[in-house]
Amino acid sequence: MATPSAVAIEDRSPEKVQYGPTDWMGGWKTCVWGCLAIILVTAVHWWYTSRYAWTVGIDSSTPEFTKYFRSLVWAELLIVGAGTGLWWGWLVRTGREIIDKPVTPEEEVRRIAVFWGLIAMTSLTLYVMASFWPNQDGSWHQTAIRDTALTPSHIPMFYFWFPAGITMTIGTYLYGRYRLPKVYGPDKGFPWSFAFLIAASVTEMMQVAFNEWAHSLWILEEIFAAPFHWPFVLYGWLAAGIFALWAETIIRLLAIEREKEAEVAAASSAAR
Amino acid sequence: MAIARTAEEAAQFNTLLNKKYRFFDYKWDLVFWVTALPVVAAAADITKLLFAGDWDFWTDWKDRQWWVTITPFAMIIIPSAIQYIQWLAWRFPTGFTYTAVGLWLVSWLGRWLQWDVFVNYPLNFVWPASIVPAAILTDWILLKTKSFVITSVVGGMAFSLAFWVSNYVTLAPFLQPVEFMGSVLTLADVQGISYLRSATPEYLRMIEHGTLRSFLEETTLVAILFGGTVATAGYWVGQAIARILAIWPIMKFMKKV
Predict the structure, then answer these.
(1) CB contact under 8 A, A225 and B50
(2) Tens of pLDDT along A53-74?
(3) Is domain A20-271 in CATH 1.20.1050.50, yes or no?
């Protein structure tokens, strides 16, 4: 039984109440729809690049390149920039309103499920940026001449998915900071798990700048395993911090189970 | 299933097995095992691509000198990290296999969509090497020895050897000799010459130099042996990633200034 001041499941909008905290369309909805959205955006992105890269993407000095690819860069930067600002802003604004309000165990479990959904989306985003597009980057560079930093295989990878990695890692932290204060609340300090995960996405973005600078200086022939590509790998390993997120929230879930057991036991002994 | 050593232990296991949870159900396990796979596979793939990618991209680069030396090192790192995590958390000797299956999936997705469909290279020229058999073997070594040290030494060697043996099945047809413009080459070499790679170094001018050839028929074995020792080192790189970056941070917070 929730305390009167707690944010009960029933306080949330009626269409959400029909699902429990661990139903697929309850707490896991973020995971299901979020991952499907990432797959859909990736598919559209890949179709667009495949459709136009070989016809108008070879020479960055042409008007067609400007029309189909420079405009894509601007669209990507606008979408990821505005989307990030809106999402982070919403998380902080609404988070400040609810961080101090007590929650029922059910609501906290639901939030952990949403948090796991965000981790899932982060995991998928890291795959898209660190495996799916690098494969195209390899096939493109080893087949076509490296033109500029705005070559077709870079445009989805470096200017949309790499920033999206930062959007997801920091956004997931903001969700945890304000919605799961017993795990990631500001009074605890900054978690090392998120420090590593966020560092992975931020340093990968910084490595993009080094990569382009280095390509402009050193080699025209593309050796994919060239030493100045290795920092991409070293920084990527920092994403191992994602495992600590699962562990930390599992520990909290076990604590909620114990708290609920104690609450039920206390209620039944009071009834007797 | 765990085997109890005493009646008391059996009773504890029984209680644990039959415990009814309010919030834990199969979905947490399912979501974890499915959604961890993309980041695990991505880490394994980017490590392979940027440490040994050139040798994995093309059949003519899959040689007996560098491919079998470098690739096992690049491909053992992330499986080792996941093996540590899964053994620590569940006593599951499955980390190598889990990673290998994920890597297999993302590698083939990448080669199919980004190399075959996007650039029109045939898949029999750009197929990725597999570590699934080598991974099962290395997990089995941990299961039997329960020791990361032994797994690193014996498993590292076994991983390297199994890598060559299992991929040789796919590679062998491309190593058949053919006469091409008056020279005897392998079929893989002819693929490398026939399919244009305007920004890729020609591998024929990079390999088959040095004195390794003086070992005659033992060339491959020497390279596999050295690859095994390098893979042993790679195993500990993976262990460091898991211990320092994945496990150590759990419930650790930076002090507020």
Answers:
(1) yes
(2) 999 998 889 999 999 999 999 9
(3) yes
